[in-house]
């Protein structure tokens, strides 16, 4: 929920950078890119402050006023609509009971079921837009209709368990203040579990109030030093946001997923946009720059897997550092805001730029822009050896990689063929050696004759001692 506040700060910084970009582009007509008028950045209500695209062009103060008025008006209109629909359904149901008595039993049951479902839907709408004086009854009905089963509620992910254990280990170092922090966090989570029907803005306000109360409680009651309070609040935010992640990021009550799909479709349609069209001062032909660009893209993609706002901001910070390093290596000088903004747009495809991108922004004719968007033609559909200088370096690298893969595939096929041939030669050689050995054994069989029993007595009378040489002739000694 602190993520929403930091997102607004990020949008304000991006708007300030767009003002600088707009001024520089007015002074340099030959430079192509984003053209932003000063009047378009101010609040639509004319208060003099800068507006924010996320707040429909209003500043933060005017947006709260307009949002409160619009919400009250919407609640009143929905309440009137719910009452009118309920009256119409009751009248239709009464008339159907009087005029359709002769119909079959199956159709009557179907009509009754359909009417009950519609009535239940109308009642649900009325419960959602009921005034705060009926909050108690509404809370009980919403819990009955929307509360998850105990088994699903108790189920926790591995990451949630890990963060919970780390949080408990951390607050143990604070002793009594830590016990108070844990008690307040459990109470807040239990309270928010009964406020699932609130909007994201209202849940964000509740979270901000909770953070402020905990910080004040640590400072005033427990006299905790400011540096330890800041560290404790970081851990509290990490624990709270990890537990509340599935309820505050893309919940079912919002159309965030539809917006994401629309932006994704728009980005895919703009796949033909090159860095030269955006005046991106980055040369991906330099290996170090290419590595920095890949790391920046990886950091942006990794941000979606983070649950804590602090971790998401860390991903954006790392991405920005990689962008600055890539620009510095390319230009051999420190990067400026005019260089950073178009590069960031090229890396992460800013939503506001993608939604408002037109042919004039890319210095193209409307006919060419329409053909590129519909997919009839594309500037990247060229041979790998005949690329123009304006073609994206990524396309060139892709074609080179495809050529290398083709060559690698051919080499692999040759290696496999040679390996099979070698295997066949080894089998033939083994069979030949075996056959030669069998032929030799068959031609020259080995016969082992039994040994003859020779006389072992050297001094026996049967042995011819005269035939022995003198040194070996036995001598008789008198005993």
From TrEMBL:
GO MF term list: DNA binding; guanyl-nucleotide exchange factor activity; small GTPase binding; zinc ion binding
Gene Ontology annotations for the cellular component aspect, listed alphabetically: cytosol; endocytic vesicle
Domain (A20-type) ranges: 37-71
InterPro entries linked to this entry: DUF5601, VPS9, Vps9-like, VPS9_dom_sf, Znf_A20
Highest taxon, organism lineage: Eukaryota
One protein family per Pfam: DUF5601
Start and end residues of each VPS9 domain: 257-414
Record region (Disordered): 460-479
Single Gene Ontology BP annotation: vesicle-mediated transport
UniProt xrefs under SMART domains: ZnF_A20
Record keywords: Metal-binding, Zinc, Zinc-finger
Protein name, as recorded: A20-type domain-containing protein
Lineage, top ranks: Eukaryota, Metazoa, Chordata, Craniata, Vertebrata
């Amino acid at each position: 929920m602190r993520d929403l506040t930091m997102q607004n700060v990020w949008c304000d910084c991006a708007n300030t950078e767009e003002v600088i970009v707009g001024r520089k582009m007015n002074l340099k007509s030959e430079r192509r890119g984003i053209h932003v008028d000063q009047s378009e950045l101010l609040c639509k209500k004319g208060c003099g402050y800068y507006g924010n695209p996320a707040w429909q062009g209003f500043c933060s103060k005017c947006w709260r006023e307009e949002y409160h008025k619009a919400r009250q008006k919407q609640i009143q209109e929905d309440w009137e609509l719910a009452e009118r629909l309920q009256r119409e359904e009751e009248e239709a149901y009464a008339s159907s009971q009087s005029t359709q008595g002769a119909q079959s039993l199956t159709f009557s049951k179907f009509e009754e079921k359909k009417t009950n479902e519609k009535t239940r839907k109308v009642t649900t709408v009325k419960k959602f837009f009921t005034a705060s004086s009926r909050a108690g009854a509404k809370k009980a009905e919403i819990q009955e209709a929307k509360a998850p089963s105990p088994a699903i509620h108790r189920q926790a992910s591995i990451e949630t368990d890990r963060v919970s254990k780390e949080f408990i280990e951390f607050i143990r170092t604070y002793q009594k203040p830590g016990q108070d922090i844990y008690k307040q966090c459990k109470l807040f989570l239990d309270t928010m579990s009964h406020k699932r029907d609130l909007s994201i803005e209202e849940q964000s306000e509740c979270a901000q109030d909770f953070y402020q109360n905990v910080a004040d409680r640590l400072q005033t009651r427990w006299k905790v030093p400011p540096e330890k309070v800041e560290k404790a609040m970081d851990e509290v935010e990490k624990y709270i946001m990890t537990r509340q992640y599935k309820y505050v990021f893309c919940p079912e009550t919002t159309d965030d997923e539809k917006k994401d799909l629309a932006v994704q479709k728009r980005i895919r349609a703009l796949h033909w946009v090159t860095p030269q069209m955006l005046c991106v001062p980055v040369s991906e032909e330099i290996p170090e720059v290419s590595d920095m660009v890949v790391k920046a893209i990886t950091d942006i993609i990794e941000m979606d897997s983070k649950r804590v706002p602090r971790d998401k901001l860390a991903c954006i910070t790392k991405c920005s550092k990689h962008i600055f390093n890539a620009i510095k290596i390319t230009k051999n000088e420190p990067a400026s805001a005019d260089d950073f903004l178009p590069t960031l747009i090229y890396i992460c495809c800013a939503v506001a730029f993608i939604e408002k991108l037109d042919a004039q922004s890319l210095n193209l004719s409307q006919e060419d822009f329409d053909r590129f968007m519909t997919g009839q033609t594309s500037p990247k559909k060229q041979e790998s050896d005949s690329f123009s200088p304006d073609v994206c370096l990524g396309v060139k690298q892709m074609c080179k990689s495809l050529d290398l893969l083709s060559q690698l595939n051919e080499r692999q096929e040759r290696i496999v063929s040679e390996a099979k041939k070698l295997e066949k030669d080894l089998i033939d050689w083994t069979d030949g050696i075996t056959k030669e050995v069998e032929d030799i054994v068959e031609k020259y069989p080995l016969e082992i004759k039994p040994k003859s029993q020779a006389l072992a007595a050297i001094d026996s009378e049967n042995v011819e001692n005269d035939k022995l040489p003198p040194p070996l002739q036995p001598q008789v000694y008198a005993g």
